[in-house]
Amino acid sequence: xxEWRELxxxxxxAGYAGEDYWGKPVPGFGDPGAWLLVLGLAPAAHxxxxxxxxxxxxxxGDWLFRAMHRAGLASQPTSMSRDDGLLLNGAWVTAxxxxxxxxxxxxxxxxxxxxxxLVREIELLTDLTVILCLGSFAYDVASRHLGIxxxxxxxxxVEAPARELTLICSYHPSQQNTFTGKLTxxxxxxxFERAVALGLN
Length: 201
Fold this sequence. Notes:
This protein is 36% helix and 13% strand. It has helices at 2-10, 48-51, 59-70, 108-124, 136-146, 175-178, 185-200; strands at 29-30, 36-40, 91-95, 130-134, 159-162, 165-170. Helix 3 (59-70) packs across helix 7.
């Protein structure tokens, strides 16, 4: 995975040929006092791996931050670069795997190697009450960490209580889901509305 992310950063996509790629592990970002953790899969090869900020500079991020802005969790509806002025309110955004994986499919070995970084993030976010899992991979990682048994089957809007936290599932805002209509903006807004309702209780 390290070799892949570095290769992508040197063999750049034509549209970004003039840009300096980050090409390193991509940390989470947001409000240190967050009550909501938004958990994705991994940085996109030409998104977070390019910009150095998760869900930044790609279409999944366009969907995510528009929804977060509508929910009052983001200061603006776009996320284009690390210095674009975006601020999050009550939310922290991160990925289960910190490096861009080949074909956007981390192996279980890569997942487990990155686990300590996510565990530390969760430990530091002492006000968390809700984890919004974007996709089944993120849900699997979060539910394993929290020891949820029995674990509800992943589905859009599925909830799983865990200790003082609630996990909420959403389809990932990938082009595969948004272009086909599997995930609509209305559906995405509903899971954020539910997260806010839980976070305010």
